[in-house]
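Aim 2 progress update. The chain analyzed this quarter is reproduced below.
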Amino acid sequence: MKPPLSAFYLLLLIFTLGFLLTFIQIGILTIAFDKLGLSPHSALLLLVTSLLGSLINLPLFTIKAEPASPDLTPPPWRGLLQQRPREFRGKTLIAVNVGGCIIPVAFTLYLLQYHDLPMLKLITAILIVSIVCYHFSRPIPGMGIGMPIFIAPLAAALTALIISPGHSAPLAYISGTLGVLIGADVMRLKDIRTMGVPVASFGGAGTFDGIFLTGIIAALLA
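Predicted structure tokens:
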């Protein structure tokens, strides 16, 4: 879970959009989307809607929370996180991010319909990636839950290649997407009460270091 956008992150999203669109032109992201069965036009639509959707957090409910515990120290990779802390007033709004959660999960359901993935292998892959994400994610005082960006996609890609080489790309995307959502968001929900964050959203502030990019990188590597 991560807080909503800062002005800096809005500029970063704009830069990222241009950067990713450039990569599509030279075919790198196209390879990942092609592995997932998407045409270039569908891939571009998915990418753009996810980036724009990352600007939107849909509120779910509010919980009482405490200021950040002094025992919580920022991890050495905190610098990879882009938002600055917002003012905390004793409550945390739990939300869901459209671009970082809803759209990737919807695409996951699409993949499940068009790929014959054995249920046992699917559950096993999601469970493995969820455990890895939970282990490497950390509560960050005044910020939310953070995790090194490449941990989840590497775990998802390796797991998919080992469990189901014939369906490694869709399995990597699905396990990467749901693994981050479960391991670094849902399983860390209990930690939110003691981190002094005003807003925590499933899927984070967007797609740059969130669930969507995890799925794409995992599919590319698988």
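The chain has one domain: 7-75+88-221. Residues 77-84 have pLDDT under 50 and may be disordered. These observations will guide the mutagenesis experiments scheduled for the next reporting period.
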